[in-house]
């Protein structure tokens, strides 16, 4: 039912009843509501731009707290990385050096990085730089710790077998000569005594009378015995394990065979002048993980003669009567 309104009629000088339809009233009310809603929305937007709502204020506070926590976490990562770097340095210079292991280069320890795609999901946020930086540092530390644990595993294995290793590492003089060893040639570059040209000498030459006994400088297995006319002459190559090999060359006789186990101080041959040689001597090499090193560092300079003779006396006696490989075929460990 329409709402009753009155309108003055000047002709009759009376008020006539005017009825407003419901549709018109509804339209006017809707317009009034929409205008009011629009004004309220604009007001709230303006208020939100210049004033924080309780919810936005709480979110800003939480974001600030998280940023501080991530910054502290990054500092912890940096401190942990410094500690790990010191540990790696000690591993290379102390632990691995004690067991004569190759050092792990810095480029290997630092190698490997996660794909940038891994961090894409962290981009696009207000604090993306902190999130991505923390994730990258965590991944880097994880890789470093894994590599360091593998290095410690390797050192631990050698530490557990250190007694066996001490017996295998070349540690005595290969020739039992009274007085100081007579070195004809040192390790390194020199003028070749036969060809008279510069050449790298991968061992040392110890002079002595022909037939002087030659002894194994550490426990091991004979890996090779062979003869070379223009090279080492009669030679013996012993594998000591742990990456160590020793070579004894220019022998007049070889007293061991490939595959034979020998002990430190066991007689393995007799000094001679076979192969490319200018006189009776022993060419002695120490090879560590495939690389010749200076044998002088493995000679027992401070060992007393009585102690040296005791090692020789306690070593097993070679049963072989001796072999001149220049008159026989090559012998290799099978």
UniProtKB/TrEMBL annotation:
SUPFAM superfamilies from the UniProt entry: Duplicated hybrid motif
An annotated Gene Ontology molecular function: metalloendopeptidase activity
Positions of transmembrane segments: 30-51
Keyword terms, alphabetized: Coiled coil, Membrane, Transmembrane, Transmembrane helix
Domain M23ase beta-sheet core stretches: 200-295
Coiled coil: 56-90
Pfam families listed in its UniProt record: Peptidase_M23
Organism domain of life: Bacteria
Xref: InterPro entries: Cell_wall_metabolism_enzyme (IPR050570), Dup_hybrid_motif (IPR011055), M23ase_b-sheet_dom (IPR016047)
Region (Disordered), start-end ranges: 310-334
PANTHER family to which the protein is assigned, alphabetical: LIPOPROTEIN NLPD (PTHR21666:SF286), PEPTIDASE-RELATED (PTHR21666)
Protein name: Peptidase M23-like protein
């Amino acid at each position: 039912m329409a709402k009753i309104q009155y309108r003055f009629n000047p002709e009759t000088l009376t008020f006539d009843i005017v009825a407003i339809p419901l549709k018109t009233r509804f339209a006017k009310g809707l317009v009034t509501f929409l205008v009011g809603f629009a004004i309220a929305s604009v007001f709230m937007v303006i208020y939100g731009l210049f004033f924080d709502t309780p919810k936005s204020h709480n979110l800003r506070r939480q974001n600030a707290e998280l940023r501080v926590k991530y910054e502290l976490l990054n500092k912890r990562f940096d401190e942990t990385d410094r500690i790990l770097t010191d540990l790696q340095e000690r591993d290379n210079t102390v632990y691995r050096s004690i067991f004569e292991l190759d050092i792990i280069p810095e480029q290997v320890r630092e190698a490997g990085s996660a794909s940038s795609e891994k961090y894409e999901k962290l981009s696009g946020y207000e604090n993306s730089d902190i999130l991505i930086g923390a994730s990258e540092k965590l991944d880097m530390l994880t890789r470093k710790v894994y590599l360091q644990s593998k290095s410690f595993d390797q050192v631990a294995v050698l530490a557990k077998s250190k007694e066996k290793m001490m017996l295998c590492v070349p540690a005595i003089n290969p020739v039992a000569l009274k007085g100081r060893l007579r070195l004809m040639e040192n390790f390194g570059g020199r003028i070749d005594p036969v060809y008279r040209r510069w050449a790298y000498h991968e061992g040392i030459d110890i002079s002595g009378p022909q037939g002087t006994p030659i002894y194994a400088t550490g426990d091991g297995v004979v890996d090779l015995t062979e003869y070379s006319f223009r090279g080492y002459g009669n030679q013996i190559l012993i594998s000591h394990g742990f990456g160590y090999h020793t070579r004894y060359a220019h022998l007049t006789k070889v007293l061991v065979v490939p595959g034979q186990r020998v002990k430190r101080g066991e007689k393995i041959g007799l000094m001679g002048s076979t192969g490319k040689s200018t006189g009776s001597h022993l060419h002695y090499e120490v090879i560590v993980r495939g690389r010749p090193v200076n044998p002088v560092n493995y000679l027992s300079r401070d060992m007393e003669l009585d102690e040296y003779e005791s090692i020789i006396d306690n070593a097993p006696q070679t049963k072989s009567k001796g072999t001149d490989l220049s008159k026989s075929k090559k012998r290799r460990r099978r």
